[in-house]
Every structure is written in structure tokens, then in C-alpha cells.
Amino acid sequence: MSLFDKTMNGLQTSLAMRQLRQNITSANIANAETPGYQAKKLDFEAALERALDLDGLRGMSTDNPDHMTVGGHTAKVTPDIYDNPDGVPGNDGNTVNLEQEMATLSENAIMYKAALQLMNKKLAALKYAASEGR
User: Residue 34's domain spans which residues?
Assistant: First the structure.
């Protein structure tokens, strides 16, 4: 039995993927002046959906208590990182759109902070329950 539920595991996966997105976006910004650099993109939503198994395709159950349960945790999914197909090459062949990358960076930081706050609230509720409300 796990202390953390699917929500906590999902938040943990989301934080890890948001950190990866932060790194990719920061690398794009750092290479905005590099001739020939192809901006990278992370397929965040699809990877998170696969990790959380939102469609239920990987969900399995057991009716025998001796069998191991498979559901209730996030899958170890590696998100797809690829050259951004929406990038328009400049005169030097660089496809980084600095304004778009800065907007992505800001949005990602806000979403990271929100997930972290949700995780802190869940942990505070566990702490409250463990201390019997004292």
C-alpha cells in the first residue's frame, strides 16, 4: 500500500516534466542567437496523459490478494522532445521565437508553482491526519 495516491503521483510526475520543459525552454532561449539552432519542443500534455494513464488503457486489476496490483501509480514515461515544427527559420537558420519561448517559460513557471502548492496542501492534510488534528 502506498502512502501517496494517484493525485500525489500525478503531481510528482507533472513537476518532473515541468522541470524538463523549463530546461528545454531555457536552452532554446540561450541559443536564440546561435546560427542554425533548431528550437526544441516537449510534448508535455500527451506525455503527462500517458504517465497518468487518463484513458485507462493500462489499468489492470486483480481479484486475488496474492497478486500484485498494477494500477494506482504513474507510469515511467519519457516525454517526446523534438525539433519544433512551428519554428520559422531566420536568415541564419535559427528557429527560436524568443517571444514565444519567454511566454512558455512564464506559463511553465506558473504551472510548476501551482502543482507545488497543491502538493504542499496534500502533504499538510496528511500531516494533520497523522497528528489527529492537533
Answer: 6-130
